Amino acid sequence: MADEKKIIPKKEKEINYRDLTTCDATIQMLERAKKDGMETAWDRAVNMKACPIGKDSACCKHCFMGPCRLNAKDPYAKVGICGATIDTIMARNFSRMVAAGGAAHTDHGMGMLDLFREVVNGNITDYKIKDPVKLEEVAKSIGIETEGRKLEDVAKDLYQELESTYTAVEGEIPFAKRVPPKTLETWRKQGIVPRGAMREIMEIMHRSHMGVDQDYVNITKQCSRTALADGWGGSMVATEISDILFGTPSPIAIEVNMGVLKEDQVNIIVHGHEPNLFESMIESVNDSTLIEEAKKAGAKGINLAGMCCSGAEVLVRHGIPHAGNFMSTEAVIATGAVDVMAVDVQCIKQGLVKAAECYKTVMVTTNPRCHIEGATHVEFHEHTPRECTDNIVIKAISRFKNRTAAVEIPQIRNIGVHGFSHEYIKYMLGGTFRASYRPLNDNIINGRIRGVAGVVGCVNPRVKQDYVHVELVKELIKNDVLVVQTGCSQIALAKAGLTTPEAAVMAGPGLREVCETVGMPPVLGIGSCVDNSRILIACSEMVREGGLGESIADLPVAGCAPEYMSEKAICIGQYFVASGVFTVFGVTFPIVEGTKFHKHLFEELGQMGMGKWGFAVEPHDIAKLMIDHIDERRKALGIDKARERVLMDMADRQKLEASA
After folding, report:
1. Domain ranges, residue 47
2. pTM of this prediction?
């Protein structure tokens, strides 16, 4: 019609992918995807501005009188329709992020516990207890008698005890027994010791409903309790049971980046978070019948690689190569070489389906919790796991035989050393007969190691992929701070060459000396994002060894998620803060600065005997916050001056042996 308005399509911004990522393989594939007309999360992020109101958490959608939008620039100028202040609104929003993130990890942990129960009861035979020593150590840590008892009886008691991590309606979660007494005393004083995770998540969702809890301090109290039910509950159960069933990691050198794909083989990528699927997939790709079928289709074999956190799980247990972290999952499909991408849960972009369609890659979902429109669903059942994983391999062979997309694989492979579990760190520092954290504590006390930093978490397209992780860690190790890592962060550091013993040359003189003596990297990769619980255990062990204070809050340690992007990260951050760790986030922070709630998170929690939050965007600013905190803790402990090395004579050694 003549008077009809003409709609002019919005012009897309020109993108230079080198401004968005430091990963050359990802750049190569994003440029190919652009030529092929495939849109990725990078394109969408550039062309879609973040909502400024939602970014500051100044928007309330918890009832239908609104949504109510408050002005972050003048936060106390008005309130919501119900009268809710910006502090109440932000506390509700923040607590619901914690609840969602905690639910993701605790559901993962409960799934692992269900599998453990069925294995112990003999109802599942495809999985076995691979680490009976770990089983007994976990049982003893929560007061279960192991001496002279059958392994299966100990295992049944362990299951029953750990089940209360989720179902208890009163009391304290089992792993509270691992918490340093002074830290636990603080939790009890503040009323934040978790009961069961189901109870805590239910309560925080109730409290954050319209018209219930309207005191940001009281909301934060339950928020901390819910987060701790994840860190010392659901996540810790997931890690410990995974170790018991699939083996406790120890260091292994492994290839990462897209060059691990092979043009002349059937390539299968497994992406997600739960190790069960991947463990069975390893069995399937090594099945002689399926390998023969692949060869009949013209392939030289079957090549299995991981992405994201399920890839990190098998990277540290089996040495399976890793193709890239979260933001490279679409780019790897653009190689044309991926025959199947199989996913389970968490961090799965819906855009992967469109990417797969473009290159005729078969996209398979496997978990009943995660269906994606347009993907093929092949449900995975632990009682009959090979029915799913064999089916996936067959689909991959068929796609290889009928490949139509041109294959372009970036020939980039990097080596990383990963698998530094809590148990291996003790062994590495003290050997078989005197495994302990004593050498770590001593080297912190004498000043060779300034402190310890956990640099963990995701990558986010709102910042340059991997850049903040890499530059932050370079600055930390240069200043003699030992770094531990989980999740996508460790893949970023592996690509940058920072996770091998040779990287010690980039460390400060004290840390370098320790690394070269022990033969370890200055950056210790310890597993997937659920494995942050290993860091909590390590902190508790440092307190137990003595000389660095009586609670986790006393330790010269700091944590950071410099490129975080998910609600899981918010929950992880809050359980570290509640445990006593100063925790810095990058990218953005969903709280308005200058508000009472902001002051509560960034100052008052620390004054209550816990940790506190920090925020900065640039890596050197983040490093300064972390190092300043570590130095403050060193000063409070009276170890801010380096101590002279003391050589032990025979009498000193005999005293040690007598006290061992």
Report:
1. 17-55
2. 0.93
